[in-house]
Design a protein that fits this description.
CATH class of the largest domain: Alpha Beta
Bound molecules: 2-acetamido-2-deoxy-beta-D-glucopyranose
CATH superfamily of the largest domain: Alpha/Beta hydrolase fold, catalytic domain
Strand order of the largest sheet: 7-1-8-9-10
Distance between the termini: 37 Å
Helix content: 40-55%
GO molecular function: O-acyltransferase activity
Radius of gyration: 20 Å
Pfam families: LCAT
CATH topology of the largest domain: Rossmann fold
InterPro entries: AB_hydrolase_fold (IPR029058), LACT/PDAT_acylTrfase (IPR003386)
Number of strands: 10
Signal peptide: 1-23
Order of helices and strands: HHEEHEHHEEEHHHHEHEHHEHE
Keywords: Signal
Amino acid sequence: MATQLPRLLPLLLFLPFFHIAASTSPSGLHPVVLLPDTTCSQLEARLTDAYVPPTPQCAARHKDAGGRWFRLWKNTTELDDPAVAPCVADQLRLVFDHVAGDYRDVPGVETRVLHFGSTRGFLADEPADRSARAATRSPTLIIIVKSSHGLYMSRNRCMGRLVEALEEVGYRHGENLFGAPYDFRQSPAALGQPCRAFSRYRQRLRALVEHASSANGDRPVVLVSHSEGGYFALEFLNRSPLPWRRRHIKHFSIKIAGMYHAGVISDGVALERLISEILRESFVQDSKKVDYRRVAQL
Ligand SMILES: *[C@@H]1O[C@H](CO)[C@@H](O)[C@H](O)[C@H]1NC(C)=O
C-alpha cells in the first residue's frame, strides 16, 4: 500500500473534481483540457535564409538544416552544452516589432507549438527531458517530495501523473482528454495591446474546447491548469463571452497559481470574482500547502 500511495495521490487529490465531473453527467465524463506549466510546452523551429546566426559556430550547426523543423525547446542536451546554448538562446529570443506593436520571433526563425490538442507533447522527448527526471532524484527535491506539495510537483511534472490518473478513471487521449500547450514566451498582452500569438492561441483553444464538447454529447469542458497555464486559461476565459463560457466550460480548476496571476483579475461577472478568490487563496497557500481540491464552479 505504501508503494501504491504515490500512484494514487493525484487521484485522491482530484477526487472531488472527478466527483463533480462525473456526478453531473451519469452517462459519461466531462471532457478535460489540460494547460501545463511554463516549460512543459514544446516548441519547434525552422530557419529561413533570413536568419543571421550570432557566431560562425552557430552558423555551422545549421548549415545542412534545409528548412527542416527541429526541437528548439526544450532540449537539455543543447542547453547544457556551453558551445550550443548561446545559439539556442538566440533563436528563442523574441523581438519587438515597432510597426505591429507586438513581439515576434527573430527574423528568419519560425516557431510552432508541438502537438497542440494533445497532452502527448507536454514533456520533451528523451534525452531532452532527462533534467526533469533527474530532478526527482536530486537531494533537494527529495526533501520537498516529503511534503504533499512537492510530491505532487515532482511526480506530476507536466501533469504526467494527472494524465495517468485520468486514464485510470476512463479518460482517453483525443476522445475526452486534450492538451492545450502554448508558446510560453508569448504571454497574453494587456487588453487593447496587440498580441497575435495569444490571439491565435485563443482561437485554437476555443476550437479545441468546442470540438471536445461536441465530440462528447455537448457536455461542457473542464479546464485544468498548472501554474502559468492558469494565466493563459484565465485570460482565455476572461476574453470569451459569458454565454460561450456558460455553454462550453464546466469548471476551471487551477493547480498552483503563480503570484503574477493576481494582476490579471478584473472586477466583473461572478466567474472573475470566484476565480479571483481562488487565486488569492492559492497564492496565500502556495508557500504552505495548496488546496488542489478547489474547483471553480462557473
Ligand atoms: C537535442 O539535441 C541533440 C544535439 O543537438 C540532438 O541530437 C537531439 O536529437 C535533440 N533532441 C530532440 C528531441 O530534438
